[in-house]
Amino acid sequence: RRTGRASSHGKTILIGEHAVVHGAPALVLPVIDAEVVATVTPLEDVADAAPGSAAGHHLESTVHTGPLDLAPAAVMPTVTAVTATLRHLGVTDRPVHVRVDSQVPTARGMGSSAAVAAAVTAAVADVFGVVLDAETHHELIQECERVAHGSPSGLDARGVVADAPVWFEDGRIEPVALGARFVFVVADTGVPGHTREAVASVRERLDHDPETVRAVIDRIGALARHARGTLEGGDVQALGASMDAAHDLLTSLGVSSPDLDGLVAAARGAGALGAKLTGGGRGGCVLTLAEDDDHADRIAAALRGAGAAATWTTSIGDRV
Ligand code: PMV
User: Fold this and answer.
1) Among residues 69, 101, 133, 156, which one is catalytic?
2) Atom of ligand 1 nearest to the CA of 17
3) Roughly what angle, to the nearest 10 degrees, separates helices 258-269 and 293-305?
4) Where does this polypeptide localize (predicted)?
5) For all residues of the chain together, what is the average pLDDT?
6) Domain residue limits, the chain
7) 109 CA to middle of ligand 1, Å?
8) Is 156 known to be catalytic?
9) What CATH number is given for 178-316 in this structure?
């Protein structure tokens, strides 16, 4: 018998949030530095350390430590990750102890539920010596995401296991080639995002003023296509301009907030090439583009100085 271990990471939306709900494409970035590690041991191995839990599975995380069947609603997706994976493996009678160490904050649009699901499902499989193939893994993560969010697009599930940007359109994904190295800084307002309300309010605006709002959605879609071209062509300046334009369009949809606008302004004050809210908005995170690693450090410092609860620097195209 062995210990299973797997990791995943957070994600952020480069361009396309909200418009993607209405059919536009989106670009998703992995945030490798915001890591989730799941460690799984057969429960008999740790029964002494977790008295009273021998009858079932056991969870050890910041949200809940104790028997899995007594977990609060917030960890139901994690419960699903364990039970669905054991079911898939045909070993539902084998109790496990699951430890989750996550650096991805919840409710910030960074895909924390999908990242935890990705790590836990892979770690449970690993205990039994199984490596899940990509599509099976994706389906298991989506099963957890349905428990967490109702009808997930799959964007988070793809982003948290990707090691490069992902193009997402009509439920399908494509890897994006990179023509240069791009360095981003993600900053957390410290305020939970309100994706559900924000999505509902955009839908309401669309119903009331279809012409205007449809035009904004189309422009965000066009920006996503343009941004993909800037990634492929290695045009860092043009990508920054697309991010700025996306922030303005999202603001016009009513999904920004004073906290988000404050961090966007701080990043621009530090010379960021582009800055925008990322994810559902009304809280959550901003995404900014730096010239290089040193510049990213300065932007991160400016963002923390402006009140960011945390920052992550993430680069793509390191092998270009
Ligand atoms: O806040 P997040 O990262 O879960 O992103 C939500 C993205 C939206 O486009 C606003 C909603 C969606 O389901 O795609």
Assistant:
1) 156
2) 9
3) 140
4) Cytoplasm
5) 93
6) 4-172, 178-316
7) 7
8) yes
9) 3.30.70.890
Residue type (1 letter), 29 = L
Alpha-carbon separation of residue 102 from 120, 149, 285 (angstroms): 11, 19, 17
Residue 133, CA distances (Å) to 25, 123, 137, 147 in order: 26, 13, 6, 22
4-172 and 178-316: identical CATH topology: no
CA distances (Å), 60 to each of 50, 57, 66, 150, in order?
10, 10, 7, 25
Kindly report the protein residue whose alpha carbon is nearest to atom 12 of ligand 1.
21
Judge whether 315 and 190 are in contact, CB under 8 Å: no
Give the model confidence (pLDDT) of 15-64 as tens digits.
999 999 999 999 999 999 999 999 999 987 544 444 433 358 999 999 89
CA distances from 72 to 66, 173, 220 (A): 10, 33, 38
Q: What ipTM was reported for this prediction?
A: 0.93
CATH of 4-172, one of 3.30.230.10, 1.20.1290.10, 3.30.70.330, 3.40.50.1110: 3.30.230.10
What is the largest distance, in Å, between two alpha-carbon atoms of the chain? Answer: 64
Helix axis angle, 210-233 to 236-252, nearest 10°: 160
